[in-house]
Amino acid sequence: MAEYIKYRVPARGVSATKGVAELIEKAEEDGVKTAWHRLLEQQPQCAFGQLGLCCRNCNMGPCRIDPFGSGPTKGVCGAGADTIVARNLLRMIAAGAAAHSDHARDVAEVFKGVAEGRLQYYRLTDVEKLKSLAETLGISTENKDEHEIARELAEVLEGEFGKPGDEPLRMLALAPKKRIKVWEKAGVIPRAIDREICECMHRTHIGVDADPVSLLLHGIRTSIADGWSGSMMATYLSDILFGTPKPIKAEANLGVLKEDYVNIIVHGHNPILSTKIVEVAMSEEMQELAKKYGAKGVNVAGMCCTGNEVLMRLGVPIAGNFLMQELAVITGAVEAIIVDYQCIMPAIVDVAQCYHTKVITTEPKAHIPGAIHIEFNAEKADEIAKEIVRIAIENYPNRPRDRVHIPKHKIEAIAGFSVEAILEALGGTLEPLINALRDGTIKGIVGIVGCNNPKVRHNHSHVTIAKELIKRDVLVVGTGCWSIAAAMDGLMSPKAVDLAGPGLKKVCETLNIPPCLHMGSCVDCSRILIALGALAEALGVDIPDLPAAGSAPEWMSEKAVSIGTYFVASGVFTHLGVVPPVMGSQKVAKILTEDVEDIVGGKFYVEPDPVKAAETIYNVIIEKRKKLGWPL
Ligand code: SF4
Ligand code: SF4
């Protein structure tokens, strides 16, 4: 149903990505609202919420603290600004860590099913990685077949979620030893993923932990459980099941949708279903079926991180990042958008009702009213994938041909730079990278990650920071919606070396890599941790000593809060381009941007201006180089 558009969006200014403006204009012509329209309707947003000063943790509230001190300074229970802000942040970290880790649990269950020979549609693809992880976790692989190793590994990994006792997480064996010492000293070694998340909720219940320092330290502990175990497990097991990514060419942006094909979008995060959809859709049977319905075939494109998963392993084109999910439907050319979980706007159902698109939810934990729900079950993966693809094909004749508009823009990108792929490009050893860093050919490495947020110009900060850094000879790696933004801007094409400084350009040309490397989906921020850990160990230093930094220029999700916190916990100087809801407490803001550095070696830095942010990040890198005695 067309809606009354109360506030018009200045379409030409809201995005740095080609094709977005024309679809926002089309949305308004079609009477369809997008996230940008709804953000305008939300203005003015609650200042208490923006400052983190609102508490709803019990029914004596909600309580709000007056940031100017002339109104209430305490909630009904007596909690002040510092407690409330820290508690709210801890709950964000808990939710983010839960999302990543529950995703890992789902992959681990499929992995266990494969190990036990119960799941016919999945297999162990990267056996080398399986063995290497097993050995790192202390599982002997000698004289054992791959399924036996996998069974033992599955048992250990199951324990990561809820093992009893105070023993550290087993996956911490992947972290550098110097880091472990820092975490031990700070008392933030995580014991079990679910336990730390559960403790976040307990501590933030009315009348438990009121000390902002103690609350934030538990946030650090929980985030480490996410980064070094939950997310790490999702990455490792996805690689073992579907293959460790290698450089692969694909196309990016909404122009990957095809006029005469059945277009299917896979959206969400988990590769367990999306990989199957791609396999089934590309089968001769489904391609032929599409022809019977008048199409030339079936075309699958990705969105957000499940898009990244199938992009980096199968070369599936990527249609866009978080803020483009509604726009894909607004093209009028998408027969089905198939979602698993995380970052799926419930609004896609409303948008889809204005066209012919079927929204198909598949996860028992992620229903959306108005969508078709076809529950996924790994035991019947291929049958379910076929049923879903068939629905999309049968919907092709319903396409509203007079309302179809697919932007022309698409661009080639190279994705799939796992740590293993980077090592392979380097000739099997970190030495060439270390030498280039040491002699200043490359000044440093920055991991850029995270979301889109309609509060800032779409993809502008993502690409601006990346360009500002590569021109200063800083190698940029990244994940999530940043990597899609960079791909759509051409920064993942070998031609982007022309935007790099002379040193980085030389290295990229020698290795035949772009200056911005796609390392995967949100959970694959764990690959950045592994890369930094390996570099630090090879140099005999700790991660905070490296000329490296992190950035989340357009973050919005709770997962991004957890990622940012585990970057800081891992010793990384971490930039946030959107102000987090902590400014209601000077104490909490100071801990996060100053004091935490003395505890774990990393800290947050908040700067909305991407050019200024890149300058500061570069200066931090130069300071680290000075301390290492490396040329500037
Ligand atoms: S926990 Fe305290 S501050 Fe929060 S709502 Fe209850 S009374 Fe208010
Ligand atoms: S980067 Fe952010 S918006 Fe994008 S898929 Fe990940 S959590 Fe969602």
Q: What does it look like?
A:
By secondary structure, the protein is an alpha/beta fold. It has three domains: 81-161 and 171-242, Substrate Binding Domain Of Dnak, Chain:A, Domain 2; 254-403, Rossmann fold; 413-628, 3-Layer(aba) Sandwich (Rossmann fold), CATH 3.40.50. Helices cover 48% and strands 11% of the residues. It is built from 24 helices and 16 strands. The strands form four sheets. It has a six-stranded parallel sheet, sandwiched between helices. Helix 18 (460-470) links the parallel strand 11 (444-448) and strand 12 (474-479). Helix 5 (127-136) packs antiparallel against helix 9 (212-242), helix 10 packs across helix 15 and helix 18 (460-470) packs parallel to helix 24. It is globular and about 65 Å long. It starts with 19 loop residues before the first helix and ends with a helix. Its cofactor is [Ni-4Fe-5S] cluster; [4Fe-4S] cluster. [4Fe-4S] cluster 2 binds at residues 55, 58, 63, 77. It catalyses: CO + 2 oxidized [2Fe-2S]-[ferredoxin] + H2O = 2 reduced [2Fe-2S]-[ferredoxin] + CO2 + 2 H(+). CODH oxidizes carbon monoxide coupled, via CooF, to the reduction of a hydrogen cation by a hydrogenase (possibly CooH). GO terms for molecular function: 4 iron, 4 sulfur cluster binding; anaerobic carbon-monoxide dehydrogenase activity; hydroxylamine reductase activity; nickel cation binding; peroxidase activity.
